[in-house]
Design goal:
The protein is mainly α and 247 residues long. It is 72% helix and 0% strand. The protein contains twelve helices and no strands. Helix 1 (3-13) packs antiparallel against helix 2 (22-45), helix 5 runs antiparallel to helix 7 and helix 7 (121-147) runs parallel beside helix 9.
Length: 247
């Protein structure tokens, strides 16, 4: 993607009008995600590798994974679902572009993944921290949306959709613990992800289905043996403790 075009995108994203609420933040994130995709496609055509440290590229990623903007939002509401899923979808697609870069399907390309975890580990940790916090807000908003539905609106499709989200949340958390914490090459990256799990533990404690909550507790029981950092271990222990408090 030409540098001039990237700079124009960043200028648009910096507009005060796009910093007022979650819907505008999500729109800005989608635009930044598209600009980043175009950049990666251009690098791929030239046979190169994305440079995520370039200021204009780092700024695009900063807009997609905007932890400060997410944290500054007011408490979750049911109406957040209108834009929040767009934002987390953009974030999910964006982080896959660099963490899976060069991987050859269909089998997991461990060589490519390891290289990307080493080269892009800082950006990956920020992305996963954002995803965990964004999904936690989705969980709260989704429950509020469900609670606000009239009985006749609580269709089987909607009920199955919410249950599927609850199941997938448990799978995602377990996968992230292994990939982003155990596989982190820097202690600070493991801490960043573990802190996100700790900070959202109350949400997950009530949102995860009982059988999934028990599975997460069981699989994290031996975390002192593999978590690479003492602070990360403490945060994960706080997370599992919160899960255990739910009857």
């Amino acid at each position: 993607m030409p540098i001039v075009r990237i700079l124009l995108v960043l200028l648009a994203l910096a507009s005060p009008a796009l910093a007022q609420d979650g819907a505008h933040d999500a729109a800005a994130a989608r635009e930044a995600a598209q600009a980043f995709r175009i950049y990666v496609e251009g690098v791929t055509k030239k046979g190169g590798r994305p440079d995520l440290t370039r200021p204009e590229i780092a700024a695009l990623l900063g807009r997609v994974f905007d932890l400060d903007a997410l944290a500054a939002l007011p408490p979750a509401q049911a109406s957040d679902m209108d834009w929040l899923m767009d934002w987390t979808d953009a974030a999910n697609a964006t982080h896959k572009l660099f963490i899976l870069y060069g991987a050859k399907p269909p089998q997991p390309d461990l060589v490519a993944l390891q290289r990307n975890m080493t080269e892009y580990g800082d950006q990956y940790a920020v992305a996963i921290s954002f995803m965990i916090r964004g999904m936690a807000r989705e969980a709260v908003a989704g429950q509020l949306f469900w609670a606000g539905l009239a009985p006749e609106q609580r269709t089987r499709i909607r009920e199955e959709g919410l249950a599927g989200f609850r199941r997938n949340a448990a799978q995602y958390i377990l996968g992230i613990v292994c990939a982003a914490i155990q596989g982190a090459t820097k202690p600070e990256n493991a801490r960043l992800v573990a802190a996100a799990i700790r900070d959202t533990s109350e949400v997950w404690a009530s949102f995860l289905l009982p059988q999934d909550r028990a599975r997460v507790i069981e699989q994290l029981a031996d975390l002192p043996h593999w978590a690479p950092d003492e602070m990360a271990r403490a945060d994960l222990a706080a997370f599992t403790a919160a899960l255990r408090t739910v009857n």
